Amino acid sequence: MPTTPFPDSTILGYPRIGPRRELKRALESYWDGRSGLAELRATGRRLRADTWTDLRRRGLAGPVSNTFSSYDQVLDAALALGAVPARYVRDTPEDTVFAAARGADGLPPLRMTKWFDTNYHYLVPEIGPDTTFRADPGKPVAEVREARELGIETRPVLLGPVTFLLLAEAAPGAPDGFAPLDRLPDVLTAYEELLGALADEGVAWVQLDEPALVADRTPAELAATAAAYERLGGLTRRPALFVASYFGGLGEALPVLADSPVEAIGVDLVRGDVPEALPGLRDKVLVAGVVSGRDVWRTDPVAATALLDRVRGIAGQVAVATSCSLLHVPYDLAVEPDLPAELTGRLAFAAQKVDEVVALAAGTAGSVPAAPTPTRPVEPPPVVSRAPYAVRAAAQAARLGLPELPVTTIGSFPQTAELRTTRADLAAGRVGAAEYDGLIRAEIERVVRLQERLGVDVLVHGEPERNDMVQYFAEHLDGFAVTRHGWVQSYGSRCTRPPILHGDVRRAAPITVGWSTYAQSLTDRPVKGMLTGPVTIVAWSFVRTDLPLPAVVHQVADAIRGEVADLEAAGIGIVQVDEPALRELLPLRGAERAAYLDWAVAAYRQATSGAGDATQIHTHLCYSDADEILTAIDALDADVTSIESARSHGRILGEPAVRDFARGLGPGVYDIHSRRVPSTDEIVAQLRAATTALPTGRVWVNPDCGLKTRAYPEVTAALTNLVAAARTLRAG
Ligand code: MET
Ligand SMILES: [Zn+2]
Q1: What pLDDT is attached to residue 624?
Q2: Which residue CA neighbors atom 9 of ligand 1 most closely?
Q3: Any idea of its EC number (predicted)?
Q4: HSE (CB half, 13 Å, CA atoms) of 540?
Q5: Among 114, 408, 410, 670, which residue has the most ligand 1 atoms within 8 Å of its CB, making it the best to mutate?
Q6: N or C: where does the chain have the smaller number of CB atoms within 10 Å of the terminal CB?
Q7: Is the minimum distance from the CB of 411 to ligand 1 under 6 angstroms?
Q8: What is the DSSP string of 697-708?
Q9: CATH of the domain at 209
Q10: 468 CA distance to ligand 1 centroid (A)?
């Protein structure tokens, strides 16, 4: 085993989509057949080389490799273990990855879900009792060699065996009671081969990512972790092992790793506590994550140095690192000339965070300007309640006069190429504000007329003015800044540009009222006002960390409350406040969940509880797994809730908590993630299941989510069938 010391400054990973989203463009061009594999590979090679040379130029002692991915690092791990289901395997690794990630030849893709509590999505590996594992070290070895050609020695990063299996789901047809973790011994054989191949390559250190260890783990899972690292540590032909944890504290998993033969342990000191002193840590390297990989703020050097001093006493050596991969932050602040100087001084993107790690290791970190003192109240007011649901329901029924099983949509209608061009033209000054306004109004009219023609009961204006449901509000509220190039990978080639919430949040003027009242002026049917909820706005932004999240979210909730009041005053009878990110922020540790749900629910109620009895408040959640938080959804006290259900095949309707759900519920009956148009019969069957679980009078008919990613022909066909299905059931 080599004894190369661990570098004193390192990062756990780096963005890979490209500073100008070069990888996105290369991928989409390859998928569309506009370019070949050679071009795609050349783009990847260039991006990796640029990253490594930049890290060297910044003076980082421990650069990493195998953090590049042409789609997703979890899928890459399945490929390196030879465990991608055979139905997806193609001639090249890239085509195998794309088939599994995007589907191919009529095959649906692997399931995709959120990576811990981030907005990144990974592909869920399928592991069964018969899955074969065959190590394929091709990609990590190739990246190590590529960096060496530049004279740069890297530490390859692999997803660790325990996290890989805990994130996997049982393959279809696996017997009841089978868990992917049952396959640990076989997976470890493949890891042994991977480690052997890296040792043969002369690799000194390898990083094994085990973020699953920061969530609650059963004794059996902890025992499996101990066994795994006992076995890998016992190998004679292997690099030194660095097990990285992140997104929280290790808790009970810390002594397990401390007692194992691994040489280095990574701890997240931004989100987790300083680990307890353990005898096993004395001869290990502690890789101290003191520079946050989850936000865009500069690190306070005084606090970080104090943390480093505290951990120095408990470990043999301490290295300075980021708290997790920098995948979750934008590339470089230096390309953002439009941000206010006062704000720029407080920010750090990936490149600046590397500089911070280097400076902290060298003891040369400078000082950071303080965040502004809030000028608005940050103390959330006590939770106020609306009148009891029964009272509201009666007032709303009298006002709205809706039929049984009302049909509605979730808000957005297809974002056509013309709409995107119109917005780009406005930004570039090619169309003026008045012309833009006219074009958006024409689109709203088209969407309203279409819904009337199809027989939809509660209409929407279609959200044509919004690029993104969070960014649109951020652009119209004080206290937020938006970046030019601050893209963060969400999945595959998809990126988002999270706004930065940096000051007091304030709504200077109504934001949506003009569009909603215009839509309402065109029709006698009710038009729903459409707002993004406070929890989702903070979840999908980079928010200030000098104040507690409940204080920050309260200011946002107050702004949304003002907008609800203005919509109401303008005569809008139904207002939907979307909270698709409610589930995403749920803490990884069970013990912290109740407190989170308390403030999240309070923020939602602050935003919506000013509405009068006759104003119907809707909410919308998607991304499945709503069953885990149904009680909290009930506590939101919205009159009507729409949830994703079609994509998860109505699983939610089988939940006992659904029966206790005391308000209107619209389990989605059209999976908008697919091009498929559900037939009327299929929708009728789904609605029958819903009216069995719930009183018919409380069931709504709607798609799983907004329609903005779909095309008009599919949407028109699907909504026609939704209306037909509702009418069939109404007729008895
Ligand atoms: C991700 S949830 C989206 C809700 C939004 N109102 C839409 O329809 O697009
Ligand atoms: Zn949605």
Answers
A1: 61
A2: 706
A3: 2.1.1.14
A4: 24
A5: 410
A6: C
A7: yes
A8: GGB-B--SS-ST
A9: 3.20.20.210
A10: 9
Rg of the chain's alpha carbons, rounded to an integer? 26
Cβ pair 171, 131 in contact under 8 A: yes
Per residue in 580-629, pLDDT (tens digit) is: 999 989 999 999 999 999 999 999 999 999 999 999 999 999 866 777 78
411, 459 Cβ separation under 8 angstroms? no
Please identify every residue whose CB atom is under 5 Å from ligand 2, which is an ion. Answer: 580, 622, 705
Query: Which atom of ligand 1 lies closest to the CA of 411?
Result: 8
Name the domain count of the chain.
1
For the question of residue 618 being annotated catalytic, the response is: no
Q: Are 330 and 486 in contact (CB under 8 A)?
A: yes
Any atom of ligand 1 within 6 Å of the Cβ of 101: no
- Give the tokens for residue 596: 């989170």
List 502, 554, 618, 673, catalytic entry: 673
Please give the share of the chain, as a percent, with pLDDT higher than 70.
99
The answer, yes or no, to whether any atom of ligand 1 lies below 6 A from the CB of 705, is yes
| Average pLDDT taken over every residue of the chain | 95
Q: Are 555 and 309 in contact (CB under 8 A)?
A: no
Query: Does 578 sit in the ligand 1 pocket, CB within 6 Å?
Result: yes
Is 0.95 exceeded by the ipTM?
yes
Q: Which residues pair with 262 in a beta bridge?
A: none
Residue 174 lies in a domain: yes
Q: Identify the residue whose C-alpha is closest to ligand 1 atom 7.
A: 706
Stretch 258-269: mean pLDDT: 98
Judge if the beta carbon of residue 534 lies within 6 A of ligand 1.
no
Integer Cα distance of 40 and 4 in angstroms: 35
Pairing type for strands 264-268 and 240-244 reads parallel
With respect to residue 71, please indicate whether it lies within any of the assigned structural domains. yes
Specify the residue for token string 């013990």: 591
Q: Whose CA is nearest to atom 1 of ligand 1?
A: 580
- The residue behind tokens 């085993």 is 1
Q: For 55-66, how does the pLDDT look when each residue is reduced to its tens digit (9 = 90+)?
A: 999 999 999 999
Residue nearest to atom 8 of ligand 1 (CA): 706
Residue 644 Cβ < 6 Å to ligand 1: no
pTM reported for the whole predicted model = 0.95
Domain span at 57: 22-362
Distance CA 497, CA 502 (A): 15
Q: Using one digit for the tens of pLDDT, what is the confidence trace for 314-332? A: 998 999 999 999 999 999 9
Collect all residues with Cβ–Cβ distance below 8 Å to 8 and sequence separation of at least 6: 61, 62, 319, 320, 361
Q: Is residue 334 part of a domain?
A: yes
Judge whether 225 and 162 are in contact, CB under 8 Å.
yes
Pocket test for ligand 1, best of 494, 531, 618, 705 (most atoms within 8 A of CB): 705
Q: Is the pLDDT of residue 2 over 60?
A: no
Angle at 522 between CA 516 and CA 527, to 5 degrees: 45
pLDDT at 409 > cutoff 70: yes
